[in-house]
């Protein structure tokens, strides 16, 4: 005679039946919760968020507003505004040595690179087919492969060699069912920048196995060490094997615009354009004009941010080396993240939880990025220098 | 010795291997081509497009620009801005008698209702499971079910009874594998508004079979006849069985904003919020503020558009009745479409092709909306009265 409890159980069983296996299998993510804490609790210093702390450039905002006022509130074509696709093609040629023959059939403008990635996966992967993902890697990769009912093959990365990707690993683990590799350089969460030589070795395996590389280059503008960013599609013969994913979110500090793009061989992009109507139709029209303006800005806008991140990176490196509870095996050269190992034998969750409660500093547990991230935390330096300094001082004060 | 041709064949075979079955199975759609023609060829009068010809309301544009200038260029929470979700809950209660207990866990803001629909399907449908779709129906429904590797069960609708949905049909065709029904009233492309009594009969079957209804209410504000729009979730007991999909695109003439939302039981919406990070993360932040302003506008904004559509509808009804090549079995009462039968025995494609070439008028072939749309064309009255009048005069002149 416990009707409420009984009903609750019945209801739960019902929802278990109704919800798809694919969503029930997804791992719990603390990403949204972390974003909320960092926005709501003003006492917490957040080294968590994955977005620039800069606002979008003023000329971008002004031009977006102007286009809204000019009545650009209607649908764009599903592949995006023609003039934006042309500007993207120029940018890819100039900045990335990626040559686009016909922007209208080889580029699709998407809601950030996120939407580009799910569109790319839908276009390539059938149920049960395999996709390589880096582990640790961006927390959405494996669930995205799961959502398209594919199977993610984890590529374990270790800190002692700076989380480098080894081509032999791809060769060894490749089966008849493997279709693609998600590549992410500079990397979220590790900050690793893959060397051109390594990418060329990977390219050899990609040709041998005839795979497609989904090259997530969200952080392309933020490379600080000796290495330069190399777009995978720029390597010899890789045009037919690569979908290049870039976004305005990080390079131009406009994540709230939700504008990215995917570029590649027209056989792939035409299919992506065709299915775009089934995921969101097209990105916001006025925001696409904003993106167009961003691509026309002098390079000084990006350079200024880059220089600021470079200084913060130097500071954070120094501070981590002074922190007894954290250890960096190699200095990360890109993105705006560091991924140090916890020296005390705590799990990522315990450490992040303790640091939040005792020092009021938010770091992201490393296991959010795959099981190989267990024992690590991600720290973002997309935060003012003063705040980074204070965060570490708070941690030291509490014995971390 | 025909290397070029041979290479081309090899390449085609390669792409056939690389592209997923799911995209290769999708039907060819002329939607994007139609949008392009209607925008590019200034001599053509388009009765094609599925979007309002009005611009977004000025207060919406002004507020969006203001929020951009205030630095609202960062990510929102994956479920959307808290204040927008609250405004949506109020709107649903006031306009639709749909009660939302906690806006923060029962609403997700999406990139139009399109994204809401694919998120809803991903959340409910596993590979091989079945979803009922109306035929003729919105051209994206069946491909979307295909994309989530579900199976679309067609519900054939006929013009002689005004394309009504018959509950017995659902009962008969339902199997162990059936999970959901996509409901669309007012309907694109037929303009049909389902009666409350019919919806209640459908609700009985939904309870009996424990299905989820994806209720696409994009055209909720545009009902012109005796019937009123009834939200499926407002019917007795349907809260646990319905995902309500609405959008700002049609009601507020802001399709280029790409803002819609999905509301329902928290067990479903929480999963949708969880997977949102894997499709687009969140909609444009500033555009969400624009949507918030739209929901705060006096009803006169929507009323003015509605009255304008009502007059155009009267005109188009009169003109179709005077057109020998077209026949309307029943007068459609909603959306901004008519779906007349072609009387001459031509296919939809032939007729649309002839009308475009000879009269320079664009209509959409009915088979774009499913095989039961063969022999019909869709005509949109989201066009100025003078243009509607001239389009028909052009057609009459050429003997249509």
TrEMBL record, chains A, B:
Q: Which cofactors does it use?
A: pyridoxal 5'-phosphate
Q: Which BP terms in the Gene Ontology apply to this protein?
A: amino acid metabolic process
Q: Give UniProt keywords alphabetically.
A: Aminotransferase, Pyridoxal phosphate, Transferase
Report the domain of life of the source organism: Archaea
Q: Does the keyword Transferase apply?
A: yes
Keyword flag Nucleotide-binding: no
UniProt cross-references to CDD domains, sorted A to Z = AAT_like
Q: Where is the Aminotransferase class I/classII large domain?
A: 43-394
Which Gene3D superfamilies does the protein's record reference? Aspartate Aminotransferase, domain 1, Type I PLP-dependent aspartate aminotransferase-like (Major domain)
Question: What InterPro entries does UniProt report for this protein, alphabetically?
Answer: Aminotrans_II_pyridoxalP_BS (IPR001917), Aminotransferase_I/II_large (IPR004839), AspAT/PAT-like (IPR050596), PyrdxlP-dep_Trfase (IPR015424), PyrdxlP-dep_Trfase_major (IPR015421), PyrdxlP-dep_Trfase_small (IPR015422)
Gene Ontology molecular function terms on file: pyridoxal phosphate binding; transaminase activity
Subunit structure comment from the entry: Homodimer.
Q: Which family does it belong to?
A: Belongs to the class-I pyridoxal-phosphate-dependent aminotransferase family.
Its recorded name reads: Pyridoxal phosphate-dependent aminotransferase
Q: Which organism is it from?
A: Candidatus Iainarchaeum sp
């Amino acid at each position: 005679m416990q009707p409420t409890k009984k009903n609750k159980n019945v209801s739960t069983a019902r929802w278990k039946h109704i919800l798809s296996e694919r969503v029930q299998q997804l791992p719990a993510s603390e990403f949204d919760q972390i974003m909320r804490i960092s926005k709501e609790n003003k006492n917490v210093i957040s080294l968590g968020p994955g977005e620039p702390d800069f606002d979008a450039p003023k000329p971008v905002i002004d031009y977006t507003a102007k286009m809204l006022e000019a009545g650009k509130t209607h649908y764009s074509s599903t592949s995006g505004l023609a003039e934006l696709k042309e500007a993207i093609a120029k940018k890819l040629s100039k900045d990335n040595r990626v040559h686009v023959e016909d922007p209208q059939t080889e580029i699709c403008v998407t809601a950030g690179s996120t939407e580009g990635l799910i569109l790319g996966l839908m276009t390539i992967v059938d149920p049960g087919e395999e996709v390589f993902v880096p582990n640790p890697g961006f927390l959405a990769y494996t669930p995205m492969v799961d959502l398209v009912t594919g199977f993610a093959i984890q590529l374990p990365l270790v800190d002692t060699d700076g989380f480098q990707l080894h081509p032999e690993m791809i060769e060894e683990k490749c089966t008849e069912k493997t279709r693609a590799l998600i590549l992410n350089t500079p990397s979220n969460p590790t900050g690793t920048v893959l060397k051109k030589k390594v990418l060329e070795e990977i390219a050899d395996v990609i040709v041998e196995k005839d795979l497609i590389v989904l090259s997530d280059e969200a952080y392309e503008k933020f490379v600080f060490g000796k290495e330069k960013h190399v777009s995978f599609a720029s390597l010899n013969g890789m045009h037919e094997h690569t979908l290049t994913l870039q976004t305005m979110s990080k390079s131009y500090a406009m994540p709230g615009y939700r504008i990215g793009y995917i570029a590649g061989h027209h056989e792939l992009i035409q299919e992506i354009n065709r299915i775009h109507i089934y995921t969101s139709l097209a990105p916001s029209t006025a925001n696409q004009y904003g993106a167009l303006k961003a691509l026309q800005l002098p390079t000084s806008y990006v350079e200024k941010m880059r220089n600021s991140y470079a200084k913060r990176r130097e500071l954070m490196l120094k501070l981590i080396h002074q922190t007894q509870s954290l250890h960096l095996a190699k200095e990360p050269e890109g993105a705006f993240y560091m991924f140090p190992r916890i020296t005390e034998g705590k799990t990522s969750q315990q450490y992040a939880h303790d640091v939040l409660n005792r020092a009021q500093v938010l770091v992201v547990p490393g296991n959010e990025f795959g099981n190989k991230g267990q024992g690590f935390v991600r720290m973002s330096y997309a935060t003012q220098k003063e705040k980074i300094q204070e965060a570490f001082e708070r941690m030291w004060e509490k014995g971390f």
